[in-house]
Design brief:
By secondary structure, the protein is an alpha+beta fold. 32% of the residues lie in helices and 33% in strands. A hairpin with a 2-residue loop joins strand 29 and strand 30. The longest helix has 31 residues.
């Protein structure tokens, strides 16, 4: 396959040389050579192809084991086992497919008695079907179970701050369902050995997208759920559009391109700005658009124009968007070569190729571009809203007016309130000197607007739920008066730290509260935890005592934690494709010490730069020296919890900044 790929590159180079020459004696044999190259390429590709039945062969046993473990009756149906796929991809999709089947069996299919009560067959059916579809293999995994609990997903998304209360009301069922692909999202109260195992649907999606594929889902309450995996036939050779942006050339995989639209006076299409964002009016649709120059931060002396240009319309999953380029220079088959290990984290590029003139061109990743400009992941899984002190504006604002203690009514901008609840006094507890309530198996702090010693609990206590850094907290008040719309005019600045100032709203004197004051009381570390939540930590220790002691500490600090009981188990997680931002490992473990694990990881180009921190009884000089020799970033005592959190936060922040700095320099160098 490597030789055929090089032959294709040489063929493209010869075609480029003869493109501008009128030498018939050369063109005829070159055309013959091109045809033979194509035939040879097809023959080699057929040799690499293997039926997905090889992948399906292991599924019946998996389903039988799941049926026994879950005490359910399961029936597996496979279709399209003779559909052929590149053997490299057969292995890459094995783990995502297994994870989806586990989810269907555990979360999708109901227990036999419940199915009978619902009028369903006692035996639940899981169907796996493969088929060819326009240069792709589509694998559908479906069940006839309960379907996704969309209201629970919507509530969980609100609780995690992924969407505001107002936005959640306008989401379609498909948009709500896509929240399950958000990092760390789960509606299950506990991680089980069947479906979760600490690996979420975001890992499944990332694995599929890393090979140029996509995953989508449809669900219907009481009828079941279907996941569709769309996978390219091969990773080696693919048709691509060669596009130009501000003098730089890039390859864009053709399978994601819908059309190219010229923007000028004659086309009837136009680019407009709506609420500060660029959009394209294309027939009956309005599509978000971004300039490739700004996405890649290309260095150029020219001025980007918003009219008289070319928009490439692409589709990732069910979302369509456009990127502005200067021109499409060619359409050709390219040989996809992977980026080196040090560049593999660049989400906007999937690889590189060599053109006929010998130049190296980076291949754009449509999924990565969608994530970078916020048209896919950022729009689907918005990070929790950051609530700032309200800034007066000239336009009208909606306020919620309420009473809390004696004196004038209080006001708060309604946009800061995720939802309003009435909480019985029996559900409110005092813990560590503060009010808390249990909500969906999670504790939410309640901060009385009046001093806690003056707060009196009634049968139904109004609570204003605010979101910060992906977390929630409640303001405990006495009575809601009204929701009004008015222009805010602070006439007297506040003296108390809890009040921005005094204003008149509809002729009534009100005190406008400073939401951040109460958030610092209820969620003092929410911002830092929200920042930490983007990092995944692997904790390795052979002793359950230390795993159980340190894992809650890291989780409370906001990190997403996975534990391993040995160095071998840790390496197995990496081999399965799990991604971690840092490893915290015990130094003294049987079979493979923490030093040996760190050496294996830090010397592997695939994990170059991965921070590894040593855990020891004491951070003695000998431990520090051994840790440095094995490639670790540092060492800390197991019982020195503040030192561990301080070192982990500092190392991750430095590593994160260096990573983005490298990305910026690589993009600049590639553009140059």
């Amino acid at each position: 396959m490597i030789l055929v790929s090089e032959l294709v590159l040489t063929r493209n180079q010869l075609l480029e040389i003869t493109r501008h020459r009128e030498d018939a004696t050369v063109k005829a044999p070159l055309q013959r050579l091109s045809s033979l190259t194509t035939d040879l390429q097809d023959a080699v590709m057929r040799a690499r192809m293997q039926p997905v039945g090889r992948l399906f062969a292991s599924l019946p046993r998996l389903v039988r084991e799941l049926a026994v473990e879950l005490k359910k009756k399961l029936y597996l149906v496979t279709e399209g086992a003779d559909t052929e796929l590149d053997r490299q991809l057969v292995e890459l999709i094995r783990d995502p497919l297994t994870h989806l089947l586990r989810n269907c069996a555990d979360h999708g299919i109901e227990a036999p008695d419940k199915r009978i009560a619902l009028g369903k067959p006692e035996e639940g059916t899981i169907r796996v079907a493969a088929m060819h579809e326009a240069g792709y293999i589509t694998i559908d995994v479906s069940d006839d179970g309960r379907g996704l609990d969309l209201e629970r997903i919507r509530y969980k998304a609100l609780a995690k701050g992924l969407v505001s209360a107002a936005e959640s009301k306008n989401l379609s069922d498909d948009e709500v369902a896509r929240f399950i692909f958000a990092p760390g999202f789960s509606t299950s109260p506990s991680v089980t050995s069947i479906s979760g195992r600490g690996i979420g649907m975001d890992i499944v999606r990332d694995n599929i997208e890393s090979i140029g594929g996509s995953i989508s889902l449809t669900t219907k309450a009481g009828k079941g759920t279907r996941f569709s995996l769309k996978i390219p036939l091969t990773l080696a050779i693919a048709p691509a559009l060669m596009v130009e942006a501000r003098g730089h050339h890039f390859a864009l995989p053709q399978h994601s391109v819908i059309e190219a639209v010229r923007i000028d006076a004659e086309s009837g299409h136009s680019l407009e700005r709506i609420q500060g964002s660029l959009v394209l009016r294309l027939r009956d649709e309005v599509l978000p658009v971004a300039d490739l120059e700004s996405v890649l931060d290309l260095e150029t002396n020219s001025v980007a124009a918003e009219t008289g240009t070319l928009v490439i319309v692409m589709r990732v999953n069910s979302r369509a968007f456009g990127i502005i380029v200067d021109a499409v220079t060619d359409v050709q088959e390219i040989v996809v070569k992977p980026l080196g290990a040090s560049l593999s984290h660049l989400e906007v590029f999937s690889g590189h190729t060599i053109l006929g003139d010998g130049s190296v061109v980076l291949i754009l990743d449509p999924t990565g571009i969608a994530g970078r400009i916020g048209f896919e992941r950022a729009s689907d899984y918005t990070v929790g809203r950051t609530v700032e002190a309200f800034v007066p504006a000239e336009e009208n604002t909606r306020f919620i007016l309420f009473r809390a203690g004696a004196g004038t009514p209080k006001a708060l901008p309604l946009s800061l309130v995720a939802r309003i609840e009435s909480v019985p006094a029996a559900e409110i507890r005092r813990a560590d000197g503060n009010f808390v309530m249990q909500q969906q198996n999670q504790l939410m702090p309640l901060v009385p607007v009046i001093p806690p010693d003056q707060a009196l609990l009634d049968e139904g206590n109004p609570v204003l739920v605010l979101g910060i850094g992906g977390e929630s907290m409640g303001l405990l008040i006495e009575e809601i008066i009204d929701v009004v719309e008015a222009r805010l005019d602070i006439q007297i600045a506040g003296v108390s730290s809890s009040i921005i100032g005094t204003a008149q709203i509809r002729g009534e004197v009100v005190e406008v509260l400073d939401a951040t004051h109460f958030m610092r009381i209820g969620r003092p570390n929410a911002y830092s935890r929200g920042s930490a939540n983007q990092f995944r930590i692997l904790l390795v220790d052979d002793k359950p005592f230390f795993r159980d002691m340190l894992a809650p500490l890291l989780i409370a600090a906001g990190y997403r934690v996975t534990t391993a009981a040995s160095g071998e188990d840790a390496l197995a997680l990496f081999e399965k494709g799990a991604h971690f931002d840092a490893v915290v490992t015990d130094t003294d473990m049987p079979n493979m010490s923490g030093y040996a694990l760190a050496h294996r990881l830090t010397t592997d180009p695939q994990h170059a730069g991965l921070p590894v921190i040593a855990l020891a009884a004491h951070a003695a000089p000998s431990v520090l020296q051994a840790a440095a020799a094995s490639g670790m970033c540092g060492a800390v005592g197991k019982f020195d919890r503040p030192a561990l959190l301080e070192m982990l936060g500092r190392i991750l922040e430095t590593h994160h900044l260096n990573k983005h700095d490298l990305e910026s320099r690589v993009i600049g160098a590639a553009a140059a």
